[in-house]
Amino acid sequence: MNIKPQIGTHINDLDTPCLIIDLDQLETNMNYVSDFYSRRSSKMRPHAKNHKTPAIAHMQINNGGTVGGVCASKVSEAEVMVNNGIKSVLITSEIVDSLKISRMIALAKRAEINVAIDSFQNAKSIDSIANKFNVEVGLIIEIETGMGRCGVQDADEALNLAESIKGLHNVSLNGLMSHQTISGEPDLETRHTEAKKVIEKVINIKKLLESRGFVLPIISTGETWSYDVAADIEGVTEIQGGSYLLMETDYAYMTEFQQVCKILGTVISKPTISSAIVNVGLKHISSLRGVPAIEGNNDIQVVDMAPSSSTVSIGDQVSLEIGDQLSFIPSQQDAMVSRWNQFICIREQSVENVWDIQARGCIS
C-alpha cells in the first residue's frame, strides 16, 4: 500500500522507507541551470527518465533555460509526458518495433516528436507507419562517441544515412545527437578536455552534412558532467542533462549542484555496538554504481544490502539508536526512482507536497 502523508507532516513522523525531495535544493538546482543557460544560445533539454514526473518536467520548463521540452528514453515515458501537457519530446533511444512506432506516431499528432535513429531500416519503418497516419516525425541521427552503444560509427555512415532519408516522405532529418560518459571524479580542466574531444566528432559530422545541403536545426549532446562545456561549443543547440536535478553520489564532484533526492529510513535493529540494520534495501535504492552513502555522516557506512534492509557500520564517535532516521543518497538515481510511486516533497522539515511518479514502470 502506498502511504500518502498529510501536508504539514514533520519529517520525523513519516512512514519509512520513503523517497523524499528537498524542495529548497531542487529549486536551487533549477535556478542554477536557468541562470546559466539564460546567457547562452544553447539550452537545456532536461531528461525526464531521471525523475519520471510531469510535475517536475513542467517546473523545469517554466523555470527557463530549456528548449521548452524534455528527453525521454522510452515511448512509454514520452506518452506520460505528452498526456500531461509536455509539447516537445526527444526520444533518445532507437524505436524499432511496429507497435512502439505506432504509439510514437500517435504522440506526433499532439506534440513535437523527434527520435534517435542509427539505421535506414529504422527510418524506413517509421516513415511507413507515419504515412498511414498522415503525420511527420523528426529523426535525429545518433553518433557513437565512445560508449559502445547505439549510433553511427563515423562521418561516412552518417552521410549515407542522411542521403537515404531524403527519399522518405513522412519523416524529416532534424539533427544529430550523442551521449558520452566520463570516469572518476574529473576536475574542470579534464571535463573540458574530454567533452570537447568527443563532441568534436558530432560537430564535424554536422559540418559535413551541412556542406551537402542538409539543414540541421537540432544538435543535441552533452549531459550533466559536460553541461557547461557543451553549452559553449559552437553548433550545439541543446544539452541532454538529467542527473544534475536530483543528483547522486556519482556526480558528487559537481559541487554546484545540491543533493535533492534521498531515501529516508529508520534503524530497526542494533545487533552490535558497531553495526545497525536500517529498513532500506535493494527494493528501495539501486546499487548499480555502488552502495549508497549516508547523508551528513561519513562515519556511518553501508556495508551490506539485502532486498528489504541494509547493514551499516557505525564509527566509534557516532551515537545511533533504534528508531533513529538516516537518509540514503543514491549512487544512481533513475534506477532508484523507478522503484517508487511518489516523491514526498519536504521544505523546512515538513511535507509541502506529494508528487506522483507517473512514468514509474514505463519500460517499453
Explain what this protein looks like in three dimensions.
- The protein has about 375 residues and is an alpha/beta fold.
- Helix content is about 30%, strand content about 25%.
- Strands 1, 10, 11, 12, 13, 14, 15, 16 and 17 form a nine-stranded mixed sheet that branches. Strands 2-9-8-7-6-5-4-3 form an eight-stranded parallel sheet.
- The longest helix is centred in the middle third of the chain and has 24 residues.
- The model has no long low-confidence stretch (mean pLDDT about 95).
Count the domains.
2
Given the structure, what is the number of helices? 10
Radius of gyration: 22 Å
Report the CATH architecture of the largest domain.
Answer: Alpha-Beta Barrel
**Parts with pLDDT < 50 across at least 5 consecutive residues:** none
Q: Please state the overall shape, judged from the principal axes of the Cα atoms.
A: elongated
pLDDT averaged over residues: 97
Residues in helix, %: 25-40%
The secondary-structure element order is EHEHEHEHEHEHEHEHEHEEEEEEHEE
Number of strands: 17
